[in-house]
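User: Predict structure, ligand S-adenosylmethionine.
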Amino acid sequence: MNRFDEAAKSWDSKPSSVAIAKTSVDNINEIIDVKDNFKILDYGCGTGLIAFGLSNAHHEVVGMDYSIGMVEKFNEKAAQLNYKNVKAIQHNINEEDLPKNEFDLIATSMTLHHILDTNMFIRKCKESLKVGGYLCINDLVTEDGTFHKKHNNDGVEHFGFDIAELSQIIENHGFDIIEARVIHNDFRNDRDYPIFQIIAKLTTKNLIAIFGNPVAHSKSPQMQNAGLKHINFDAKYIKHHLENGETIKDVFNQNEYIGANIIRYFEFNFVIL
Ligand SMILES: C[S@@+](CC[C@H](N)C(=O)[O-])C[C@H]1O[C@@H](n2cnc3c(N)ncnc32)[C@H](O)[C@@H]1O
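Assistant: Predicted complex:
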């Protein structure tokens, strides 16, 4: 039994969880046109504060959580509301994959800091979203380890996240960041803990990895005029730029290959290995 099984019993009476979820749902609805035919996943759903907040009579909503106590509470609520289109299942992201190309929107609220491998989580979400789908993550902004001091940080893998760093990880997986900002402050231990939300749209699944040497691209009109057929970019050179937060487009622009026929590169995203 993990601590969330016990916590499930009184989760919905925790003003802090309810307030964070409400702000998150309001923000999602403000930014995204959540269409009736959307299939939605609430990952680390708990009792479904996000799932029930987002659902209406039409949306199919799945909650996933590794705590059986949370899953049971979620399904009790769905039964009480007679929501046939909303259900939760037990699932541990550390051990299982998600269904492929299934969801239009994945939301996760205050769960990412419990998952050690952030990259793995984003990758599995990407695989599970349809192209054009949305990933909505809320969590703690980097904190000093006091947020969960009541629980001695039991099950806490990250003391929050740097918004820019997490946004970059998400972008590297093929998402466009639509919004990344603090949406709420949670007051406890006599201080505020800022909570961010990142809303990202999956623009492509055609990720390619850069390794080896060289990377070539086809010619620009300027290069053609200069009699050049193609240029080679050293993969390490591009990797260095990407790690500095630049895009492939920036790298080409800095090298004055503006207007080059590099459309293929814009369609792809590069994974930093
Ligand atoms: C702080 S609670 C948030 C619950 C809910 N999203 C909310 O906002 O009320 C974190 C949830 O993540 C779940 N969780 C933690 N690690 C998980 C994992 N590896 N796989 C699936 N669920 C996990 C916990 O069981 C818990 O319900």
